[in-house]
From TrEMBL:
<dbReference type="GO" id="GO:0005853">
    <property type="term" value="C:eukaryotic translation elongation factor 1 complex"/>
</dbReference>
<dbReference type="Pfam" id="PF00736">
    <property type="entry name" value="EF1_GNE"/>
</dbReference>
<feature type="domain" description="Translation elongation factor EF1B beta/delta subunit guanine nucleotide exchange">
    <location>
        <begin position="132"/>
        <end position="218"/>
    </location>
</feature>
<keyword id="KW-0648">Protein biosynthesis</keyword>
<dbReference type="InterPro" id="IPR014038">
    <property type="entry name" value="EF1B_bsu/dsu_GNE"/>
</dbReference>
<dbReference type="GO" id="GO:0003746">
    <property type="term" value="F:translation elongation factor activity"/>
</dbReference>
<dbReference type="GO" id="GO:0005085">
    <property type="term" value="F:guanyl-nucleotide exchange factor activity"/>
</dbReference>
<dbReference type="InterPro" id="IPR001326">
    <property type="entry name" value="Transl_elong_EF1B_B/D_CS"/>
</dbReference>
<dbReference type="InterPro" id="IPR018940">
    <property type="entry name" value="EF-1_beta_acid_region_euk"/>
</dbReference>
<keyword id="KW-0251">Elongation factor</keyword>
<dbReference type="Pfam" id="PF10587">
    <property type="entry name" value="EF-1_beta_acid"/>
</dbReference>
<dbReference type="InterPro" id="IPR014717">
    <property type="entry name" value="Transl_elong_EF1B/ribsomal_bS6"/>
</dbReference>
<dbReference type="GO" id="GO:0005829">
    <property type="term" value="C:cytosol"/>
</dbReference>
<comment type="similarity">
    <text>Belongs to the EF-1-beta/EF-1-delta family.</text>
</comment>
<dbReference type="InterPro" id="IPR036219">
    <property type="entry name" value="eEF-1beta-like_sf"/>
</dbReference>
<protein>
    <recommendedName>
        <fullName>Translation elongation factor EF1B beta/delta subunit guanine nucleotide exchange domain-containing protein</fullName>
    </recommendedName>
</protein>
<dbReference type="InterPro" id="IPR036282">
    <property type="entry name" value="Glutathione-S-Trfase_C_sf"/>
</dbReference>
Length: 218
């Protein structure tokens, strides 16, 4: 039978009509949920169909309510209005809420905001990873008469936030000349290797040149 209402969709007469219609049907049109189910269920007052008076409407209403907003949008059929069924929504019925549109969107937004807030708090508590590098420098003197102990003391006198000197050793170069090979650990955001080599080369009485022998991120 054709489903037709008159006036307020939530009136006892219209709810009785809908209940009889759904007595032997699962959906408003055909054998699958459609846009007709969405528009009618969305106009019903949850309070008025939650009791035992309209059992078929209540069963159908709970079923349609179980779908998400995205799933309802994907239902087949042309989007109809209550007027297409000869019905209308109560103008001042506070219970007549759109349970399938704005309320679900508001709830989804609330859940999303809560998850984003929790993620932001978790990220804020997580300690930031400090990027560091392990550098081995070759510091070459002018000749074999250079005081290598004084040279190393001069190099180690260079201090900066985010920089730590490590072990060192003298390595033979040629003709009795030895170079200072020294390890330095630096925080990448605080200490530039170019700046460090320039600072070492300022000790012109001792240092001929500085080379980066090895560079490794740690």
């Amino acid at each position: 039978m054709a489903l037709k209402f008159s006036g307020d969709i939530n009136s006892p007469a219209n709810l009785t009509t809908l209940d009889k219609f759904l007595a032997n049907k699962s959906y408003i049109e055909g054998y699958t949920p459609s846009q007709s189910d969405v528009v009618l269920a969305g106009a019903l007052s949850a309070n008025k169909v939650s009791g035992d008076q309209y059992v078929n409407v209540a069963r159908w209403f709970r079923h349609i309510s179980s779908y998400s907003a995205a799933e309802k949008k994907a239902f087949p059929g042309v989007k109809k209005t209550l007027a297409d069924f000869g019905a209308e929504a109560a103008a001042d019925d506070d219970d007549d809420l759109d349970l399938f549109g704005e309320e679900e969107d508001a709830e989804a937004n609330k859940v999303r905001e809560e998850r984003l807030k929790a993620y932001a708090e978790k990220k804020a508590k997580k300690p930031a990873v400090i990027a560091k590098s392990n550098v081995i420098l070759d510091v070459k003197p002018w000749d074999d008469e250079t005081d290598m102990k004084a040279l190393e003391e001069a190099v180690r006198s260079i201090q900066a936030d985010g920089m730590v000197w490590g072990i060192s050793k003298l390595q033979p170069v040629a003709f009795g000349v030895k170079k200072l090979q020294i390890v330095c650990v630096v925080e990448d955001d605080k200490v530039s290797i170019d700046w460090l080599t320039e600072e070492i080369e300022k000790f012109e009485d001792f240092v001929q040149s500085v080379d980066v022998a090895a560079f490794q991120k740690i």
